[in-house]
Every structure is written in C-alpha cells, then in structure tokens.
Write a structure and sequence with these properties.
The complex is a heterodimer of chains A (204) and B (132). Chain A is mostly helical and 204 residues long. Chain A has one domain (4-200): DhaL domain (Serine Threonine Protein Phosphatase 5, Tetratricopeptide repeat), CATH 1.25.40. Chain A has nine helices and no strands. Chain B has one domain (9-124): 3-Layer(aba) Sandwich (Rossmann fold). The chains are: A mainly alpha (204), B alpha/beta (132). Chains A and B meet through helix 2, helix 4 and helix 5 of A and helix 3 of B. The structure holds magnesium ion. Chain B: Pfam families: EIIA-man (PF03610). Chain B: Homodimer. The dihydroxyacetone kinase complex is composed of a homodimer of DhaM, a homodimer of DhaK and the subunit DhaL.
Chain lengths: 204, 132
C-alpha cells in the first residue's frame, strides 16, 4: 500500500462502513457486559476520521496514522479512544523511515505494547489486546491478509470464554463469561476490513 | 511546596456532567473561591462518557503553579485523563496528578487541604488515604 496514497481514503471509508454496519451489534455486546456505548463511540470516531480523509490522503503514511490516532483519542471517548489512539499514534511514530513491510513488523509489536501499558492490561484479560496479540503474531510470521483476519476473528471469539479483568466488565466477575468483548469484536472487525482491503488491492 | 502563594487546583472528571458539576458545587461550598476548580463530564455528543479535549480544557482552566489534582470516576475517565495530561506541555504535565480516591469525598477533602496551602503531593496523599 505504501506509496499508493489513493488507497488510504478508500480504506478509511471501508472501516467507517464496517463500523456503521456493526454499530448496533457492538453496542449490544457492550450492553451485555458494559455501558452499551462501544458502537456509537466507534462510529463517532470513524466519522471524524472519515471527515479528514482528504487531508490524511495527502500525508505520508506514518504521519497519517499518527493523526488518525489523535482524532480517535479526541472523539471516541470511553477507554477505546485512548487504546485505539495509542495503537495508531505509536505505529505512526515508529514507522518513520525504512521499508513499509519492515516498518510494520517493527512498529506493530511496540505499538501493541504501548496499548498494553495504556490499559495496564495483558493477554487473556478479555480486551482488544487479545486480538492485537493474535494479529501481531500472524504479521510477524508474514502470513497472508486472509490468515491474519481469520486469526483476529478467532481471537475475538476466544474472549467469549474469558473472564473480564479490566474495565467495567470486570465488575461482573464470572458473569462476564459467555459474552464476546466488544473491543475485541471491533478490533477483529477492523482487522478483517483492513485485510480484505489490502488483499483486494494486491490482486488488482 | 507552596509556589508564590498559589493553591493547588482541583479538576473533577465524571462520565456524567451532572455528577461532575454537583461535585464541584460541593467543593465550592467547602472552600469558596480559594482553590482553582474546574469540572467536565459527558462525551462529544453530550451523552454519558468522557472527552480528552474537555479534560485538557478543565486542567487549563484550573491551572495553578502549585499543580493540579484530578479526580475521576470510572476506568475510561482515568485513561482519558492520562491521555489529556500527556497532551499538556511537559513542564505542566509533571505538575498534574490523578488521584486514586472516591470522586466526591476525594475532591472535597483535597480541596480543603489545598485551601490551607498544602503542596500537591500532600493534597493527593490526603485524598488517597480514603482508598483502602
Ligand atoms: Mg462502553
């Protein structure tokens, strides 16, 4: 994708559509174990990024990622804003210089660690980190976009059996078991959207 | 340390603007205008939630050279407050602390301590004594 700037606006649009189409589902998941706002929060963030897609398209990718992260921080609210924001801001900051593929493999683990620090969380605590670690491991193995997306979906489903240890869902204790974490769900959804987009642009 | 006679500022961050404002009212009732005070609550659409831009603004409005103590309710309020503090210029960010204390009791006790001229660390410690 690097160098082909026209694809970033398209990718932003695809993410916005995916979140809009699933906003109610994300809210329903959040209602079950949280405060029910994850879908509307993510939708607000995606709309704000979408509104800036023209400017973002004209920026080098690392700077665009940083800017997207900042926009998400300022608009999503809830804990998801700082978590997704930190992921993208750190990715952008660590992707300056070098080749696109090396940069991604180098930036992703560090950005995921920054998300873990921000949320004071780790793997297995029923959060979007569970999906991020799965994505990271497939990216480091240089798996295909389709495989990365599949691993993300599986990791999100694995949160169903987990007991929430972070955020409001942790107040429910054992009652959080049996529900998919909404953050893990949105993360898998966005991963799937991005991987499809990259997969299709590689075929084209 | 008391800086040029300045009192530590108090910021209240709640998911609910009603709770944030009500807590601020209780603080005012206790210490009047002797302590810089600001509150914020609600997401960008006016619903329940927290908002980094509003938190940055509240910290600026309650700014004191003696520093600012921030009181938060639930998880997202804390994470968003941390993010807001990182967006301040570093010289200011170092003088803003998030208190691990109950929102209402913490803010009122901290303000009482601040109004007596206590330093930021003392103000925060007093509020945090409330948390087991
Ligand atoms: Mg929520």
């Amino acid at each position: 994708m690097d160098g082909d700037r026209s694809t970033l606006a398209g990718l932003i649009e695809a993410c916005r559509e995916a979140i809009a189409a699933n906003a109610e589902h994300l809210c329903a998941l959040d209602r079950a174990i949280g405060d029910g706002d994850h879908g509307t929060n993510m939708k607000r963030g995606c709309e704000a990024v979408y509104a800036e897609r023209g400017e973002l398209d004209a920026m080098p990718l690392p700077r665009a990622l940083e800017r997207i992260g900042m926009t998400l921080v300022m608009t999503v609210g809830g804990a998801a804003g700082p978590l997704y924001g930190t992921l993208l801001i750190e990715m952008g900051r660590r992707m300056e210089g070098g080749r696109a593929k090396d940069r991604l493999a180098h930036a992703l683990p560090e950005a995921v660690e920054a998300v873990a620090r921000r949320g004071r969380s780790q793997a297995g605590e029923k959060t979007l980190l569970d999906v991020l670690y799965a994505v990271q491991s497939e990216v480091l193995k240089q798996e295909t976009p389709a495989r990365i997306a599949a691993a993300a979906g599986m990791a999100a489903r694995d949160t169903i059996a987990m007991k929430a240890m972070r955020g409001r869902a942790s107040f429910l204790g054992d009652r959080s078991i049996g529900h998919m974490d909404p953050g893990a769900c949105s993360c898998a959804l966005l991963t799937d959207t991005i991987c499809r987009y990259i997969g299709e642009s590689q075929l084209a | 340390m008391k800086v040029n006679g300045a009192h530590v500022g108090i910021v209240i961050v709640s998911h609910s603007p009603l709770i944030a404002r009500g807590t601020a009212d209780m603080v005012r009732q206790m210490v009047g205008d002797s302590v810089p005070l600001a509150w914020c609550g609600g997401n960008a659409d006016g619903g329940l939630g927290t908002n980094v831009g509003d938190i940055v603004e509240a910290i600026s409005s309650a700014w004191s050279e003696a520093g600012v103590a921030v009181f938060v309710d639930l998880g997202g309020a804390e994470t968003n407050s941390e993010m807001a503090i990182e967006m301040l210029e570093p010289a200011r960010a170092r003088r803003v602390l998030i208190c691990n204390a109950p929102l209402v009791e913490g803010a009122v006790m901290a303000a009482a301590e601040a109004s007596g001229g206590a330093a930021l660390a003392r103000v925060v410690a007093t509020a945090e004594e409330l948390s087991p």
